[in-house]
Amino acid sequence: MSPRMYTYRWPVRTYFGIGILGQIGELVPPRGGRRRAMIASADDDWCVPLNSRLRGLLRGSGYQWVRIFAEIEPNPSWETADRGAEICKEYGICVIFAVGGGSVLDAAKVIAAQAGGIDLVTVPTTAGTGSELNEWAVMTEQESREKESVQAAMPSVAILDPALTLTLPPRLTLLTGIDAFCHALECYVGTDSNAVSDCLALTAMESVASWLRRAVDRGDDLEARTAMLEASMLAGGAMLGAGLGLMHGLGNVAGGLTHDNHGLILASLLEPVLAFNESAIPTAKLARIYPYLAAIRRLIREKFQGLDVPQVRLREEDLALLAGRAYQNVNSRTNPRPFTLEDLMGIARQSFHIVKESP
After folding, report:
1. Distance of CA 252 to CAs 32, 62, 149, 260, 331, Å?
2. CA distance 47 to 17
């Protein structure tokens, strides 16, 4: 049942369409003296031509100075965000264009918040996180191996161009698609679900179940890529008005301890968390998503072996640490069923390959 009261907002101006990146200078023009920009991205070879193209588009639209900050690592650190913020302050950056997957978008939100007075434009290149629509960032403390969910800068504009996802390799396509599905699933069954979030979540789950296999098998299929990027966006929209659950409460913490891909961790948690929560989910609501779950289960079963997807390995000595951090994680608060520390340790044992030695 939906809560009696809820609040919904979609504050990010969103542009979606094939080839829309080419219009970015018109959609986000420099205004007045605000003509200095930063492009934030990962330090990967595939980013080089995209960053160069984007800088040309921005310079052509009137930006006088465009700095490329291609230093953002997977599971971004506070140290990286600090460096980015210092550059923004030193050079008077007024707009950050964050181009990449969830790690890049998260780090850019923190950079913008720390620098202050900066507009943030998100340009996702993966179809999974939905992070382009919210102010939440997941940052990693390297020494303690702790991932923290924090509220940082809210993007002002999101540019979603399905053509930017065409180069995603099959395994990453699969794992980011599972990420999008789990966002929608947890929004749909969580304690803060509501009529608006349910509509978005159901559409997202149906789309992922229908199109993810084709996107994995035929990476150049623009129709499948478009459907997947839209599904990721809709799941991100569901998150704006509904919380998540233990897949993300445990999953975010596990990522800090193991540094495995977020989608891989969620895929490992999917069945144990669902089994734990099933008794607390209304039967009719769960029945409505059985076809989507069945499609994702088949895909995981068939593709994980074919794509040589590894297991998530967690050290025995980290189990209690994982459970303690997940118990406090913001995403766990809206899980449909109450839980104990012992419950969390049990779910982790079912989900991950527990090793006594270092992975």
Report:
1. 41, 40, 8, 10, 9
2. 20
CA dihedral 249, 304, 163, 50 (to 10 degrees): 80
User: What is the tens place of the pLDDT at every residue in 264-275?
Assistant: 999 999 999 999
Q: How far apart are CA 346 and CA 319, in angstroms?
A: 9
Chain centre to alpha carbon of residue 63 = 29
CA-based nearest residue to 138, from 124, 153, 150: 150
* Contact partners, residue 334, CB within 8 Å, separation at least 6: 186, 190, 191, 192, 242, 243, 244, 245
Residues 75, 255 contacting (CB under 8 angstroms): yes
Q: Which two tokens stand for residue 186?
A: 């947890």
| Spatial CB neighbours of 77, under 8 Å, sequence gap ≥ 6 | 139, 140, 141, 142
Q: Which amino acid is at 79?
A: E
Helix, strand and coil content of the chain, in percent to the nearest 5, comes to: 55, 15, 30
Residue 213 confidence class, pLDDT cut points 50, 70, 90: very high
pTM over the 0.85 mark: yes
Report the distance separating Cα 200 and Cα 204, nearest Å. Answer: 6
